[in-house]
Amino acid sequence: xxxxxxxxxxxxxxxxxxxxxxxxxxxxxxxxxxxxxxxxxxxxxxxxxxxxxxxxxxxxxxxxxxxxxxxxxxxxxxxxxxxxxxxxxxxxxxxxxxxxxxxxxxxxxxxxxxxxxxxxxxxxxxxxxxxxxxxxxxxxxxxxxxxxxxxxxxxxxxxxxxxxxxxxxxxxxxxxxxxxxxxxxxxxxxxxxxxxxxxxxxxxxxxxxxxxxxxxxxxxxxxxxxxxxxxxxxxxxxxxxxxxxxxxxxxxxxxxxxxxxxxxxxxxxxxxxxxxxxxxxxxxxxxxxxxxxxxxxxxxxxxxxxxxxxxxxxxxxxxxxxxxxxxxxxxxxxxxxxxxxxxxxxxxxxxxxxxxxxxxxxxxxxxxxxxxxxxxxxxxxxxxxxxxxxxxxxxxxxxxxxxxxxxxxxxxxxxxxxxxxxxxxxxxxxxxxxxxxxxxxxxxxxxxxxxxxxxxxxxxxxxxxxxxxxxxxxxxxxxxxxxxxxxxxxxxxxxxxxxxxx
Length: 502
Description:
Blueprint: H1 17-36, H2 53-58, H3 60-63, E1 67-80, E2 83-90, E3 93-100, H4 101-104, H5 106-113, E4 120-129, E5 135-146, H6 162-167, H7 169-175, H8 177-199, E6 203-204, E7 210-211, E8 223-226, E9 231-235, H9 240-248, E10 253-261, E11 273-282, H10 286-305, E12 309-312, E13 315-318, E14 324-327, H11 328-336, H12 346-355, H13 366-378, E15 386-392, E16 408-416, E17 419-426, H14 431-447, H15 456-463, E18 469-475, H16 476-484
Parallel strand pairs: 3-5, 6-10, 14-15
Antiparallel strand pairs: 1-2, 1-4, 2-3, 4-5, 7-9, 8-9, 10-11, 11-18, 12-13, 15-16, 16-17, 17-18
Protein backbone atom coordinates (compact mmCIF):
# COMPACT_ATOMS: atom_id res chain seq x y z
CA UNK A 1 0.00 0.00 0.00
CA UNK A 2 1.39 3.37 -1.01
CA UNK A 3 1.75 6.10 1.60
CA UNK A 4 1.59 9.57 0.04
CA UNK A 5 2.90 12.40 2.14
CA UNK A 6 -0.17 14.58 1.67
CA UNK A 7 1.22 17.35 3.82
CA UNK A 8 4.05 17.79 1.35
CA UNK A 9 1.59 18.27 -1.51
CA UNK A 10 -0.25 21.18 0.14
CA UNK A 11 -0.55 24.20 -2.11
CA UNK A 12 1.50 26.82 -0.29
CA UNK A 13 -0.20 29.70 -2.11
CA UNK A 14 -3.64 28.62 -0.90
CA UNK A 15 -2.75 27.69 2.69
CA UNK A 16 -4.28 29.61 5.53
CA UNK A 17 -1.82 31.24 7.88
CA UNK A 18 -2.66 28.62 10.49
CA UNK A 19 -1.96 25.74 8.08
CA UNK A 20 1.30 27.27 6.96
CA UNK A 21 2.37 27.83 10.56
CA UNK A 22 1.60 24.18 11.31
CA UNK A 23 3.74 22.93 8.39
CA UNK A 24 6.61 25.22 9.38
CA UNK A 25 6.37 24.05 13.00
CA UNK A 26 6.54 20.38 11.98
CA UNK A 27 9.57 21.02 9.75
CA UNK A 28 11.40 22.90 12.46
CA UNK A 29 10.70 20.07 14.86
CA UNK A 30 12.23 17.63 12.36
CA UNK A 31 15.28 19.88 12.09
CA UNK A 32 15.68 20.00 15.86
CA UNK A 33 15.46 16.21 16.09
CA UNK A 34 18.22 15.92 13.51
CA UNK A 35 20.40 18.47 15.27
CA UNK A 36 19.87 16.81 18.63
CA UNK A 37 20.92 13.49 17.07
CA UNK A 38 24.13 15.07 15.71
CA UNK A 39 22.84 15.11 12.09
CA UNK A 40 22.54 18.86 11.51
CA UNK A 41 22.03 19.18 7.71
CA UNK A 42 23.27 22.78 7.72
CA UNK A 43 26.64 21.57 8.96
CA UNK A 44 27.36 19.82 5.66
CA UNK A 45 29.92 21.75 3.60
CA UNK A 46 30.19 19.80 0.35
CA UNK A 47 29.06 16.74 -1.58
CA UNK A 48 31.07 14.92 -4.30
CA UNK A 49 28.62 15.25 -7.23
CA UNK A 50 29.88 13.22 -10.19
CA UNK A 51 27.07 13.61 -12.74
CA UNK A 52 24.00 15.71 -13.50
CA UNK A 53 20.65 14.10 -14.19
CA UNK A 54 20.94 14.99 -17.89
CA UNK A 55 24.40 13.42 -18.19
CA UNK A 56 23.00 10.16 -16.83
CA UNK A 57 19.85 10.20 -18.96
CA UNK A 58 21.63 11.16 -22.17
CA UNK A 59 24.36 8.53 -21.78
CA UNK A 60 22.42 5.70 -20.22
CA UNK A 61 23.91 2.91 -22.35
CA UNK A 62 27.39 3.80 -21.13
CA UNK A 63 26.25 4.62 -17.59
CA UNK A 64 24.17 1.54 -16.81
CA UNK A 65 25.50 -0.22 -13.73
CA UNK A 66 28.00 2.53 -12.92
CA UNK A 67 28.18 4.13 -9.49
CA UNK A 68 27.34 7.84 -9.53
CA UNK A 69 26.81 10.63 -7.04
CA UNK A 70 24.01 13.17 -7.65
CA UNK A 71 22.46 15.97 -5.64
CA UNK A 72 19.29 17.98 -5.91
CA UNK A 73 16.00 19.08 -4.39
CA UNK A 74 13.28 16.54 -3.63
CA UNK A 75 10.27 17.20 -5.87
CA UNK A 76 8.18 14.12 -5.01
CA UNK A 77 8.30 10.93 -2.99
CA UNK A 78 6.24 7.85 -2.38
CA UNK A 79 6.78 5.18 0.25
CA UNK A 80 6.04 1.51 -0.37
CA UNK A 81 6.80 -0.29 2.86
CA UNK A 82 10.48 -1.24 2.82
CA UNK A 83 11.25 0.82 -0.25
CA UNK A 84 10.58 4.33 -1.51
CA UNK A 85 10.88 6.32 -4.71
CA UNK A 86 11.80 10.01 -4.87
CA UNK A 87 12.45 12.44 -7.71
CA UNK A 88 15.12 15.06 -7.30
CA UNK A 89 15.65 18.14 -9.47
CA UNK A 90 19.09 19.46 -10.27
CA UNK A 91 20.24 22.19 -12.67
CA UNK A 92 19.87 19.84 -15.66
CA UNK A 93 16.47 18.29 -14.94
CA UNK A 94 15.16 15.47 -12.80
CA UNK A 95 16.00 11.88 -11.98
CA UNK A 96 14.40 9.19 -9.84
CA UNK A 97 15.97 7.65 -6.74
CA UNK A 98 15.09 4.13 -5.62
CA UNK A 99 15.77 3.79 -1.92
CA UNK A 100 15.52 0.34 -0.30
CA UNK A 101 15.75 -0.20 3.44
CA UNK A 102 17.96 -3.29 3.12
CA UNK A 103 20.41 -1.37 0.93
CA UNK A 104 20.83 1.90 2.87
CA UNK A 105 20.27 0.53 6.38
CA UNK A 106 17.36 0.78 8.75
CA UNK A 107 18.38 4.06 10.43
CA UNK A 108 19.13 5.81 7.15
CA UNK A 109 15.87 4.55 5.64
CA UNK A 110 13.95 5.90 8.64
CA UNK A 111 15.57 9.31 8.04
CA UNK A 112 14.66 9.13 4.34
CA UNK A 113 11.01 8.54 5.19
CA UNK A 114 11.03 11.82 7.14
CA UNK A 115 12.37 13.86 4.23
CA UNK A 116 10.19 16.75 3.07
CA UNK A 117 9.43 18.02 -0.40
CA UNK A 118 12.00 20.75 -1.01
CA UNK A 119 14.79 19.17 1.03
CA UNK A 120 18.15 19.02 -0.72
CA UNK A 121 19.81 15.61 -0.72
CA UNK A 122 22.84 13.83 -2.10
CA UNK A 123 22.62 10.25 -3.29
CA UNK A 124 25.29 7.72 -4.25
CA UNK A 125 24.15 4.63 -6.12
CA UNK A 126 24.12 2.65 -9.34
CA UNK A 127 22.35 3.57 -12.58
CA UNK A 128 19.54 1.28 -13.74
CA UNK A 129 16.08 1.23 -15.31
CA UNK A 130 12.91 0.34 -13.46
CA UNK A 131 10.40 -2.17 -14.82
CA UNK A 132 8.53 0.75 -16.37
CA UNK A 133 11.68 1.84 -18.19
CA UNK A 134 12.48 4.95 -16.12
CA UNK A 135 16.17 5.71 -15.73
CA UNK A 136 16.88 5.76 -12.00
CA UNK A 137 19.55 5.50 -9.34
CA UNK A 138 19.55 2.52 -6.98
CA UNK A 139 20.64 4.24 -3.78
CA UNK A 140 23.55 3.02 -1.69
CA UNK A 141 23.51 6.07 0.57
CA UNK A 142 21.38 9.19 0.94
CA UNK A 143 22.51 12.33 2.78
CA UNK A 144 20.35 15.30 3.78
CA UNK A 145 22.36 18.34 2.70
CA UNK A 146 19.91 21.13 3.53
CA UNK A 147 16.53 21.22 5.24
CA UNK A 148 13.63 23.10 3.59
CA UNK A 149 11.70 24.91 6.31
CA UNK A 150 8.99 26.34 4.04
CA UNK A 151 6.66 24.25 1.83
CA UNK A 152 6.89 24.59 -1.95
CA UNK A 153 3.81 25.11 -4.14
CA UNK A 154 2.26 21.77 -5.13
CA UNK A 155 3.81 20.41 -8.31
CA UNK A 156 0.61 20.12 -10.38
CA UNK A 157 -0.56 23.64 -9.64
CA UNK A 158 2.78 25.33 -9.19
CA UNK A 159 3.46 28.98 -8.55
CA UNK A 160 1.05 30.79 -10.86
CA UNK A 161 0.53 34.24 -9.33
CA UNK A 162 2.72 36.50 -11.53
CA UNK A 163 3.35 39.02 -8.76
CA UNK A 164 4.55 36.30 -6.40
CA UNK A 165 6.62 34.65 -9.15
CA UNK A 166 8.53 37.87 -9.81
CA UNK A 167 8.98 38.65 -6.11
CA UNK A 168 10.11 35.13 -5.22
CA UNK A 169 12.05 34.18 -8.33
CA UNK A 170 13.93 31.55 -6.31
CA UNK A 171 10.67 29.64 -5.78
CA UNK A 172 9.63 30.25 -9.39
CA UNK A 173 12.87 28.64 -10.58
CA UNK A 174 12.36 25.65 -8.28
CA UNK A 175 8.81 24.77 -9.28
CA UNK A 176 8.63 25.98 -12.91
CA UNK A 177 11.35 24.30 -15.03
CA UNK A 178 10.49 26.38 -18.11
CA UNK A 179 11.45 29.52 -16.19
CA UNK A 180 14.92 28.15 -15.52
CA UNK A 181 15.21 27.35 -19.23
CA UNK A 182 14.39 30.97 -20.12
CA UNK A 183 17.39 32.17 -18.15
CA UNK A 184 19.63 29.45 -19.54
CA UNK A 185 18.66 30.69 -23.01
CA UNK A 186 19.33 34.27 -21.91
CA UNK A 187 22.84 33.30 -20.85
CA UNK A 188 23.45 31.61 -24.20
CA UNK A 189 22.22 34.69 -26.05
CA UNK A 190 24.69 36.89 -24.18
CA UNK A 191 27.51 34.45 -24.88
CA UNK A 192 26.70 34.35 -28.59
CA UNK A 193 26.47 38.15 -28.80
CA UNK A 194 29.98 38.44 -27.41
CA UNK A 195 31.36 35.60 -29.52
CA UNK A 196 29.94 37.05 -32.73
CA UNK A 197 31.16 40.58 -32.06
CA UNK A 198 34.64 39.36 -31.22
CA UNK A 199 34.69 37.34 -34.45
CA UNK A 200 34.17 40.64 -36.32
CA UNK A 201 37.08 42.29 -34.54
CA UNK A 202 35.10 44.35 -32.02
CA UNK A 203 36.58 45.09 -28.60
CA UNK A 204 34.28 44.73 -25.58
CA UNK A 205 34.68 47.47 -22.96
CA UNK A 206 33.10 48.69 -19.75
CA UNK A 207 32.21 52.35 -19.24
CA UNK A 208 31.05 54.22 -16.12
CA UNK A 209 27.60 53.64 -14.67
CA UNK A 210 27.78 56.81 -12.59
CA UNK A 211 27.87 60.07 -14.53
CA UNK A 212 28.57 63.45 -12.96
CA UNK A 213 25.97 65.22 -15.07
CA UNK A 214 22.80 64.40 -16.95
CA UNK A 215 23.08 63.59 -20.61
CA UNK A 216 21.12 64.86 -23.57
CA UNK A 217 19.42 61.50 -24.21
CA UNK A 218 15.64 61.73 -24.16
CA UNK A 219 15.27 59.87 -20.87
CA UNK A 220 14.89 60.84 -17.20
CA UNK A 221 17.80 59.65 -15.03
CA UNK A 222 18.02 58.39 -11.47
CA UNK A 223 19.86 60.83 -9.24
CA UNK A 224 22.19 60.03 -6.35
CA UNK A 225 24.93 61.82 -4.36
CA UNK A 226 28.63 61.13 -3.97
CA UNK A 227 29.44 61.98 -0.34
CA UNK A 228 33.22 62.26 -0.62
CA UNK A 229 33.07 64.62 -3.59
CA UNK A 230 29.86 66.26 -2.33
CA UNK A 231 28.60 65.89 -5.88
CA UNK A 232 25.25 64.95 -7.37
CA UNK A 233 25.62 62.04 -9.79
CA UNK A 234 23.32 60.19 -12.16
CA UNK A 235 22.92 56.57 -13.18
CA UNK A 236 23.54 56.27 -16.90
CA UNK A 237 20.62 56.29 -19.36
CA UNK A 238 22.82 55.28 -22.33
CA UNK A 239 26.25 53.93 -23.22
CA UNK A 240 26.74 56.12 -26.25
CA UNK A 241 28.92 59.08 -25.39
CA UNK A 242 31.67 57.14 -23.63
CA UNK A 243 31.84 54.60 -26.46
CA UNK A 244 32.14 57.40 -29.01
CA UNK A 245 35.06 58.80 -27.00
CA UNK A 246 36.77 55.47 -27.61
CA UNK A 247 36.12 55.72 -31.35
CA UNK A 248 37.78 59.15 -31.23
CA UNK A 249 40.63 57.56 -29.28
CA UNK A 250 41.31 55.13 -32.11
CA UNK A 251 39.42 51.99 -31.10
CA UNK A 252 37.66 51.56 -34.43
CA UNK A 253 35.27 48.76 -33.42
CA UNK A 254 33.88 48.81 -29.89
CA UNK A 255 30.85 47.42 -28.06
CA UNK A 256 29.42 47.17 -24.57
CA UNK A 257 26.68 45.11 -22.97
CA UNK A 258 25.60 46.96 -19.87
CA UNK A 259 22.89 47.92 -17.43
CA UNK A 260 20.93 51.10 -18.16
CA UNK A 261 18.72 52.98 -15.70
CA UNK A 262 15.77 55.16 -16.67
CA UNK A 263 13.48 56.76 -14.11
CA UNK A 264 10.36 56.29 -16.19
CA UNK A 265 7.26 54.14 -16.53
CA UNK A 266 6.93 50.40 -16.07
CA UNK A 267 5.07 48.05 -18.43
CA UNK A 268 5.38 44.69 -20.16
CA UNK A 269 8.11 46.32 -22.29
CA UNK A 270 9.78 48.61 -19.75
CA UNK A 271 11.70 48.08 -16.52
CA UNK A 272 13.62 50.93 -14.85
CA UNK A 273 16.77 48.79 -14.97
CA UNK A 274 17.50 46.92 -18.18
CA UNK A 275 20.32 45.67 -20.42
CA UNK A 276 21.49 47.40 -23.58
CA UNK A 277 24.07 46.49 -26.18
CA UNK A 278 25.65 49.34 -28.10
CA UNK A 279 28.29 49.05 -30.82
CA UNK A 280 30.19 51.63 -32.81
CA UNK A 281 32.35 51.22 -35.90
CA UNK A 282 34.52 53.80 -37.62
CA UNK A 283 34.36 54.38 -41.38
CA UNK A 284 30.83 53.07 -41.92
CA UNK A 285 27.31 54.50 -41.83
CA UNK A 286 23.77 53.51 -40.89
CA UNK A 287 23.50 51.20 -43.90
CA UNK A 288 26.52 49.34 -42.54
CA UNK A 289 24.75 49.14 -39.16
CA UNK A 290 21.70 47.58 -40.84
CA UNK A 291 23.96 44.80 -42.09
CA UNK A 292 25.47 44.44 -38.62
CA UNK A 293 22.05 44.07 -37.00
CA UNK A 294 20.94 41.48 -39.56
CA UNK A 295 24.13 39.54 -38.90
CA UNK A 296 23.83 39.74 -35.10
CA UNK A 297 20.16 38.76 -34.91
CA UNK A 298 20.33 35.94 -37.45
CA UNK A 299 23.52 34.49 -35.93
CA UNK A 300 22.16 34.49 -32.40
CA UNK A 301 18.75 33.16 -33.45
CA UNK A 302 20.14 30.35 -35.60
CA UNK A 303 22.80 29.37 -33.04
CA UNK A 304 20.55 29.42 -29.98
CA UNK A 305 17.28 28.14 -31.50
CA UNK A 306 18.50 26.26 -34.57
CA UNK A 307 15.99 28.04 -36.83
CA UNK A 308 15.16 31.49 -38.20
CA UNK A 309 11.40 30.89 -37.89
CA UNK A 310 10.42 32.08 -34.40
CA UNK A 311 7.00 31.44 -32.89
CA UNK A 312 6.15 34.54 -30.88
CA UNK A 313 2.73 34.98 -29.28
CA UNK A 314 0.22 34.86 -32.18
CA UNK A 315 2.77 35.19 -34.99
CA UNK A 316 5.71 33.41 -36.59
CA UNK A 317 8.61 35.80 -37.05
CA UNK A 318 10.82 35.14 -40.07
CA UNK A 319 14.34 36.40 -39.35
CA UNK A 320 15.63 35.51 -42.82
CA UNK A 321 17.65 38.34 -44.36
CA UNK A 322 17.55 40.77 -46.02
CA UNK A 323 14.97 42.51 -43.87
CA UNK A 324 12.54 45.00 -45.39
CA UNK A 325 13.60 48.67 -45.46
CA UNK A 326 11.35 51.77 -45.62
CA UNK A 327 11.82 55.45 -44.84
CA UNK A 328 9.63 56.83 -42.08
CA UNK A 329 7.77 58.95 -44.64
CA UNK A 330 7.21 55.91 -46.90
CA UNK A 331 5.82 53.89 -44.00
CA UNK A 332 3.44 56.68 -42.99
CA UNK A 333 2.21 56.96 -46.56
CA UNK A 334 1.69 53.19 -46.80
CA UNK A 335 -0.27 52.81 -43.56
CA UNK A 336 -2.10 56.16 -43.38
CA UNK A 337 -2.19 57.40 -46.96
CA UNK A 338 -0.61 60.72 -45.93
CA UNK A 339 2.39 61.82 -48.01
CA UNK A 340 4.62 64.02 -45.85
CA UNK A 341 7.01 64.62 -48.74
CA UNK A 342 4.28 66.80 -50.26
CA UNK A 343 4.21 69.20 -47.27
CA UNK A 344 6.61 72.13 -47.40
CA UNK A 345 5.59 73.90 -44.17
CA UNK A 346 5.01 73.04 -40.52
CA UNK A 347 1.51 74.49 -40.77
CA UNK A 348 0.52 71.99 -43.47
CA UNK A 349 1.82 69.10 -41.35
CA UNK A 350 -0.06 70.30 -38.24
CA UNK A 351 -3.26 70.69 -40.23
CA UNK A 352 -2.94 67.13 -41.50
CA UNK A 353 -2.37 65.85 -37.96
CA UNK A 354 -5.47 67.67 -36.75
CA UNK A 355 -7.52 66.24 -39.61
CA UNK A 356 -6.36 62.75 -38.70
CA UNK A 357 -7.14 63.24 -35.00
CA UNK A 358 -3.48 63.00 -33.95
CA UNK A 359 -2.49 65.24 -31.06
CA UNK A 360 0.66 67.33 -31.50
CA UNK A 361 2.01 70.50 -29.85
CA UNK A 362 0.46 73.71 -31.16
CA UNK A 363 3.85 74.72 -32.56
CA UNK A 364 4.86 71.21 -33.67
CA UNK A 365 7.26 71.03 -36.59
CA UNK A 366 6.94 68.99 -39.78
CA UNK A 367 9.27 66.37 -38.31
CA UNK A 368 7.38 66.11 -35.03
CA UNK A 369 4.13 65.62 -36.92
CA UNK A 370 5.72 62.94 -39.10
CA UNK A 371 6.93 61.08 -36.01
CA UNK A 372 3.49 61.39 -34.36
CA UNK A 373 1.86 59.87 -37.46
CA UNK A 374 4.38 57.04 -37.41
CA UNK A 375 3.77 56.18 -33.77
CA UNK A 376 0.00 56.38 -34.14
CA UNK A 377 -0.58 54.77 -37.54
CA UNK A 378 2.43 52.61 -38.37
CA UNK A 379 4.32 51.07 -35.48
CA UNK A 380 1.81 48.43 -34.41
CA UNK A 381 1.68 47.03 -37.96
CA UNK A 382 5.40 46.23 -38.17
CA UNK A 383 5.27 42.53 -37.27
CA UNK A 384 8.06 41.07 -39.41
CA UNK A 385 11.62 42.47 -39.06
CA UNK A 386 11.91 45.86 -40.76
CA UNK A 387 14.23 48.86 -40.78
CA UNK A 388 12.52 52.25 -40.67
CA UNK A 389 15.04 54.95 -41.59
CA UNK A 390 15.54 58.69 -42.19
CA UNK A 391 14.10 60.14 -38.99
CA UNK A 392 13.31 63.82 -38.31
CA UNK A 393 16.19 65.88 -36.94
CA UNK A 394 14.11 67.05 -33.95
CA UNK A 395 14.21 63.57 -32.40
CA UNK A 396 17.71 62.63 -33.59
CA UNK A 397 20.25 64.98 -31.94
CA UNK A 398 23.23 62.67 -32.48
CA UNK A 399 22.69 61.68 -36.13
CA UNK A 400 23.98 63.21 -39.36
CA UNK A 401 21.54 64.98 -41.66
CA UNK A 402 20.54 63.26 -44.88
CA UNK A 403 21.97 64.68 -48.08
CA UNK A 404 18.55 64.99 -49.73
CA UNK A 405 16.54 66.71 -46.96
CA UNK A 406 18.00 68.75 -44.05
CA UNK A 407 14.87 68.01 -42.00
CA UNK A 408 15.86 64.33 -41.83
CA UNK A 409 18.78 62.38 -40.40
CA UNK A 410 20.60 59.18 -41.25
CA UNK A 411 18.96 57.26 -38.44
CA UNK A 412 17.01 54.02 -38.33
CA UNK A 413 15.07 51.98 -35.83
CA UNK A 414 14.22 48.36 -36.40
CA UNK A 415 10.94 46.77 -35.41
CA UNK A 416 9.71 43.25 -34.75
CA UNK A 417 6.17 42.35 -33.62
CA UNK A 418 5.21 46.03 -33.50
CA UNK A 419 8.02 46.81 -31.07
CA UNK A 420 11.03 49.04 -31.48
CA UNK A 421 14.00 46.73 -30.95
CA UNK A 422 16.90 49.12 -31.50
CA UNK A 423 18.14 52.46 -32.75
CA UNK A 424 21.04 53.43 -35.02
CA UNK A 425 22.72 56.45 -36.59
CA UNK A 426 25.29 57.59 -39.01
CA UNK A 427 26.90 59.39 -36.10
CA UNK A 428 27.21 63.15 -36.11
CA UNK A 429 30.92 64.03 -36.03
CA UNK A 430 30.75 67.80 -36.52
CA UNK A 431 31.40 69.32 -33.05
CA UNK A 432 29.90 72.71 -33.98
CA UNK A 433 26.65 71.15 -35.19
CA UNK A 434 26.67 68.85 -32.15
CA UNK A 435 26.92 71.77 -29.72
CA UNK A 436 24.04 73.58 -31.41
CA UNK A 437 21.82 70.49 -31.15
CA UNK A 438 22.77 69.89 -27.51
CA UNK A 439 21.97 73.51 -26.65
CA UNK A 440 18.60 73.30 -28.40
CA UNK A 441 17.71 70.10 -26.59
CA UNK A 442 18.84 71.52 -23.25
CA UNK A 443 16.58 74.55 -23.73
CA UNK A 444 13.63 72.29 -24.52
CA UNK A 445 14.26 70.05 -21.52
CA UNK A 446 14.64 73.07 -19.25
CA UNK A 447 11.22 74.18 -20.45
CA UNK A 448 9.92 70.79 -19.28
CA UNK A 449 11.50 71.39 -15.84
CA UNK A 450 14.28 68.87 -16.50
CA UNK A 451 17.88 69.72 -15.67
CA UNK A 452 20.03 68.78 -18.65
CA UNK A 453 23.67 69.79 -19.03
CA UNK A 454 25.79 69.82 -22.13
CA UNK A 455 28.58 67.26 -22.00
CA UNK A 456 31.44 69.68 -22.60
CA UNK A 457 34.06 66.95 -22.43
CA UNK A 458 32.35 65.07 -25.23
CA UNK A 459 32.33 68.21 -27.37
CA UNK A 460 36.04 68.62 -26.60
CA UNK A 461 36.67 65.02 -27.64
CA UNK A 462 34.84 65.62 -30.93
CA UNK A 463 36.97 68.71 -31.58
CA UNK A 464 40.04 66.45 -31.72
CA UNK A 465 38.40 64.77 -34.72
CA UNK A 466 35.91 61.91 -34.89
CA UNK A 467 36.02 59.65 -37.94
CA UNK A 468 32.86 58.85 -39.94
CA UNK A 469 31.10 56.34 -37.69
CA UNK A 470 28.06 54.11 -37.58
CA UNK A 471 26.50 53.12 -34.28
CA UNK A 472 23.59 51.06 -33.03
CA UNK A 473 22.04 50.13 -29.71
CA UNK A 474 19.37 47.58 -28.90
CA UNK A 475 17.61 46.15 -25.87
CA UNK A 476 19.00 42.75 -24.95
CA UNK A 477 15.93 42.02 -22.84
CA UNK A 478 13.61 42.47 -25.83
CA UNK A 479 15.78 40.10 -27.87
CA UNK A 480 15.51 37.52 -25.07
CA UNK A 481 11.74 38.06 -24.93
CA UNK A 482 11.54 37.34 -28.65
CA UNK A 483 13.68 34.19 -28.60
CA UNK A 484 11.96 32.73 -25.51
CA UNK A 485 8.39 33.69 -26.53
CA UNK A 486 8.01 35.73 -23.34
CA UNK A 487 5.20 38.32 -23.32
CA UNK A 488 6.64 40.54 -20.57
CA UNK A 489 10.09 41.95 -19.87
CA UNK A 490 9.66 40.76 -16.30
CA UNK A 491 9.68 37.18 -17.59
CA UNK A 492 13.29 37.60 -18.78
CA UNK A 493 14.68 39.57 -15.83
CA UNK A 494 15.69 37.41 -12.88
CA UNK A 495 14.77 40.11 -10.39
CA UNK A 496 12.51 42.76 -11.98
CA UNK A 497 11.73 45.99 -10.18
CA UNK A 498 8.70 45.57 -7.93
CA UNK A 499 6.73 47.91 -5.70
CA UNK A 500 7.46 46.99 -2.06
CA UNK A 501 4.66 45.18 -0.30
CA UNK A 502 2.89 47.29 2.29
